[in-house]
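Worked example

This section walks through a single chain of length 361. The input is the sequence exactly as stored; nothing has been trimmed or padded.
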Amino acid sequence: MSDASRCAPRFDARPVLSYNAIRHLLFRLDPEQGHRLTLRLLELAGSLAPLRSMLKRVFSYPEFSQPVQVFGLTFANPVGLAAGYDKDGRAMHGLACLGFGHLELGTVTPKPQTGNPPPRLFRLPEDQALINRMGFPNSGAERLVARLARRPKDIVIGVNIGKGADTPLGSAAEDYLLLLLKLQPFADYLAVNVSSPNTLGLRQLQARLQLQGLLQAIAEARAERGDPRIPILVKLAPDLSDAELEDAVQVIVETGMDGVIATNTTTSRPGLRSPLREQQGGLSGGPLRERALEVIHKIHDLTAGSLPVIAVGGILGPSDAAEALQAGAAMVQIYTGLVYRGPGLVREILAGLADSRHPAL
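Given that input, the structure is written out below as tokens.
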């Protein structure tokens, strides 16, 4: 840790404390209504220079001492926004003011789709968790490309891509290749989502032969596009067996993909207390932490640390982030933590990592 980080100001808890009152009001709304409201507020704030300056002043952490260099990209810090929060890139200018080192937009599909019928998002406050069965609702690739043409330039932006709900598994590669073609000029990296539990059959694409065919087609299409060579990551499920995970990691390495995002949401229900625990969908938040760490450790061991990993799942505070980095992750992403801790969580994690003199940084 450099002298600059030793002198960095300690975390100011006021943004998190003030969020507690706001959260009380937000939690009176339906979860999806609350999400749309916060996204809309960030979108409005991001559209006005004075409000962007205010957000940066209140929430951004001072320049982090040591940028993260991975996938051939330079990230200002190791904390990113996970996919799912801003599927259509509507609020990326506002989100960029909260101190993130990167934003992952999406999941986006080639054509607009409405996703699964509501209710499809559930808060489990007793467990600091969410269950969602959204099903990739988004406005489609064309709308996202139009917004990315006016993207903020001072932050790394990735896009999480997925097949359309109506696309047969046998034709899935066509969707991913179309998205690669459209998004490569505008995104800094792409994340191939084959692990959401909420699109029928999607997780079958993680099986060795299916994944081999898909990633090989993506690798060949990327090579044909020439420079710049956009980094491509693969987002895996936490519910893979050890053998399935080993197969998937081997295919990812063999096809020349650049990294892994570990992990997506889980269909398991580990020790939940909430009465909503039986809702169908993917579970995120605190209960996912231990399994996500196990997957990070296994990927690190399988590749001797040569395959970069972004950790997501159960990152609710600085200690969670530090533990994921110690397990071998290069960076972390948050989503559910924002729901329970608010926008000050980014600053809190960065300050905690700086204060801990974390060796990975």
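What to look for: The radius of gyration is 19 Å.
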